[in-house]
Write a structure and sequence with these properties.
The structure is a single chain. The protein has 329 residues and is an alpha+beta fold. It has a 6-stranded antiparallel β-sheet, with helices on one face. It has a two-stranded antiparallel ribbon with strand order 2-3. A two-stranded antiparallel ribbon has the order 6-7. The longest helix is centred in the first third of the chain and has 25 residues. The relative contact order is 0.12. About 5% of the residues have low confidence.
Length: 329
């Protein structure tokens, strides 16, 4: 899964950076009002070190058993209802947001930090795309590249225009308990839906968190009050309206049909498990707008601000029509 591979890169950076941060005083988290060369090279060295480690790990663990080929393209448009494309967009957006904030911490100007963030996001995303381009199982996806660049520039455009992020790209996900629904191949061999999902998404929450497209929802989280140009506040400054997009019953790239390692072909009944898209309307919280004097808490709020806060939600889809969720994750 593309999203899973990309998160391995950012996870390595976060772990290394967190270890460095934990050794410092609280003042370490405060943004410098002038350029600090020591901070700049500490940050840059940490990112380079974590990036190099992650690339070696990906190359060893993910691509080791896949034959290498020459550079080739791969058209995966429409696969997984394009859920992976929204993952590309959100990941690039969050890379850019986090990297820009980190370099502002070093004391460089906001404009320079944005350009550096765009470069970092492009390299991080592009590395995985190039690995895919030489893998026989995948290939270079032009649509992936487009969504990568789109996410990065979605961040940059708002930063340049407004000096803040009025519309954020976020993610929510939860664990799905798939049933032991029996599926029979043409020659009578049987398997279950749970075995299929365990093979696809993993059987642990740490795996399904990033690999299960059925469990993921991507959000446009809009801070309406930031568009209010007058001083008469209507809504709390931290309250957002969120528009979500998800999919259900995705058990194969383009259709719910697959071949196992023994060559047996299985296909799910589309009447029982129809593939469909879901659209949501909900509330959210912009954690970056919560007032606090603690630089540490500000850093924590910024770091987890890619997560859509659980809240009541309205869902609409072609199968069930309109649905109400008292608390949607």
């Amino acid at each position: 899964m593309y999203l899973f591979k990309k998160y391995l890169l950012i996870l390595a950076i976060i772990i290394l950076w967190g270890n460095l941060s934990a050794q410092q005083s609280i003042g370490f988290f405060e943004t410098s009002d002038q350029y600090r060369q020591d901070r700049f090279w500490l940050l840059t060295g940490s990112i380079i070190g974590a990036y190099s480690t992650a690339v070696v790990g990906l190359n060893t663990l993910w691509y080791r058993d896949t034959p290498r080929t020459g550079f080739h393209f791969f058209n995966d448009w429409g696969e997984w209802n394009n859920m992976d494309k929204y993952g590309h967009f959100m990941t690039a957006y969050q890379y850019s947001r986090v990297a820009s904030g980190a370099y502002r911490w070093t004391g460089i100007s906001e404009r320079k930090s944005i350009w550096i963030a765009l470069g970092i996001s492009t390299v991080l995303q592009g590395t995985v795309e190039m690995m895919d381009a030489y893998s026989s199982k995948w290939g270079f996806s032009v649509s992936d590249l487009g969504f990568n660049l789109g996410g990065s520039f979605f961040y940059a455009a708002q930063a340049w225009q407004w000096g803040e992020q009025r519309v954020s790209i976020k993610l929510s996900t939860s664990r799905i308990a798939y049933p032991d629904y029996t599926i029979q191949s043409a020659d009578g061999t049987r398997t279950t839906l749970r075995k299929r999902t365990d093979d696809l998404f993993g059987d642990r929450f740490s795996q399904t968190l990033l690999k299960d497209y059925n469990a993921q929802t991507y959000w446009l989280s809009i801070n309406l009050e930031s568009f209010n140009n007058n001083k008469n506040r209507i809504l709390p400054c931290w309250l957002n309206i969120a528009l979500g997009f998800g999919s259900e019953n995705l058990f194969g790239g383009y259709e719910n049909k697959w071949t196992d390692t023994d060559g047996q072909v299985y296909k799910l009944d589309t009447d029982v498990f129809p593939r469909y898209r879901q659209y949501y309307l909900s509330l959210d919280i912009d954690l970056s707008k919560i007032k606090t004097k603690s630089a540490f808490l500000k850093a924590v709020f910024s770091g987890i601000n890619f997560i859509k806060i659980p809240a009541p939600a309205i869902e609409i889809n072609r199968i069930n029509g309109l649905r109400w969720h008292w608390l949607y994750f």
